[in-house]
Amino acid sequence: MNGSASFAISVSMLVLVLAFAILTRLVPYGSPGQVIKAFYSACNSRNYSVAERLLVPEANRVLTLHIGAVDGGLPGICEEETKQGHLQRVEVLHEEIHGDLAQVRYKLYYADGSSIEDRQGLVVRHWVWKISP
User: Fold this and answer.
1) 3 and 16 share a domain?
2) Are 22 and 47 members of one domain?
3) Around Cβ 101, how many Cβ atoms within 10 Å?
4) Co-location of 18 and 66 in the same domain
């Protein structure tokens, strides 16, 4: 290999690494635990459009057309999960990632002093973590 070919390969590799770094920084929630926190934060502040974007499309269909529709859809479920906007904190207890699947165990703390522990599965869709049913 001559010097110019080696230089071209080095520059190409550098460009790829920089592009990957930039793209991963543009992802708003870098980990499954961050997605869980962002979801509950959006629910707590009644920002349902943000909460909806953190769910896989199948979960949105279930919430609007099936079981969730009986409970008031996403707004109803958010109200129930946050105790009508009284969620104080979300603590990620454990995060387990296997390829494009993840399980997050977390604890929700409420203004009345109560707390509940739960777990949620997530999947990668279009390079972004999404909450799955």
Assistant:
1) yes
2) no
3) 13
4) no
- Tens-digit pLDDT profile for residues 41-64: 999 999 999 999 999 998 877 777
Give the global pTM. 0.76
Rounded CA separation 36/129 (Å):
10
* Letter string b/e over residues 18-38, b meaning 16 or more CB atoms within 10 A of that residue's CB: eeeeeeeeeeebebbbbbbbb
Owning domain of residue 107: 31-131
User: How many distinct structural domains can be found in the chain?
Assistant: 2
CA distance 50 to 56: 12
List, for residues 75-116, the tens digit of each pLDDT value.
999 999 999 999 999 999 999 999 999 999 999 999 999 999
Do 59 and 16 belong together in one domain? no
Extract the tokens encoding 61. 């269909």
